[in-house]
Amino acid sequence: MYLISNRNLCSKEKYIKTIVEAAKNNVEYLILREKDLEYSELEKLYNKIVLALKENNADINIIVNSSIELYKNYPVCGIHLPYNLFKDLLSRDYEFDKTKKLGLSLHSTAEVIELNKIIESKNINIDYITLSHIFETKCKEGLKPRGVELLKNARDLTNIRIVALGGILPQNIGKIAEFCDDFAVMSTLFKSSYVKETIEDYNKNWNKL
Fold first, then answer.
1. Pairing mode, if any, of strands 29-32 and 182-185?
2. pLDDT per residue as tens digits for the range 81-103
3. Domain of 127, in residue numbers
4. Which residues contact 72 (CB under 8 A, 6 or more apart)?
C-alpha cells in the first residue's frame, strides 16, 4: 500500500499520527505530496515526519513528490513525478539517482505506450507507475473516472509495476487486484478515526484474492 500525504485533510496532529500509524501497520510507502509548499517548509515537514517515526520506532519508505531538491538533499527512498515533469527533466538531460526509486503519474494507455518507447531509447529504469483515477473520488470531483479498463489495458502493455489510484476503497479493491501490483490511498486514512482498522480492511480484501 502507498499512502499519499495531504495535510489539508486533517489537523496537524492527526496528519503526523496517521503517518506513524500507517508505518506501524506495515504500509510500505509514503508519497510526500505537498506540492504547494516552498522548499524550506517541505524540508521542515519532512524532518518532522522523520523525527516522529523515529520517536515511535516506526519506519516507512518516503518517496517525495516533485521536489528535486529534497530528492537530492535527503536520503529519501525515491521521487514521484508527474509525467510531463519527468519528460521535461529528461529533455534537459537530468540524471536520476539509480540507487533511489523513480515513480510516475500516468493517466492513459497512450502515455504507457509512449513511456515504453522512452525507456527503450533512454535505457532508464522506472520502478512503478500510478494510473488514475480509477473510481470516482472527491479529489477529482466532476471528472469521469477512467475505470478498471485502464488497468486492464495497461497490464497488457507494460511489465512496469502498476499502482492503482483514485477512489480505492476496501469495498471495491477486489475489482482491481487482478490488474495491478499495488494501490494508493489518501483521504480514507487521513480521515479515518481508526487507521489501523482501515488498513486491516484494505489488506483483508486485497489478500483474499
1. unpaired
2. 999 999 999 999 999 999 999 99
3. 2-207
4. 97
Can you give the CATH number for the domain in which 124 is found? Answer: 3.20.20.70
Terminal-to-terminal C-alpha distance of the chain: 15
Which grid coordinates are listed for 58?
Answer: 516506526
For residues 134 and 147, the answer to whether their CB atoms sit within 8 Å is yes
Q: Decide: pTM greater than 0.90.
A: yes
Confidence of residue 8 (pLDDT cuts 50, 70, 90): very high
Please give the C-alpha separations between residue 26 and each of 11, 47, 130, 154, 194, in angstroms, as whole numbers: 23, 21, 20, 27, 15
Per-residue pLDDT averaged across 167-180, rounded?
94
Domain count, the chain: 1
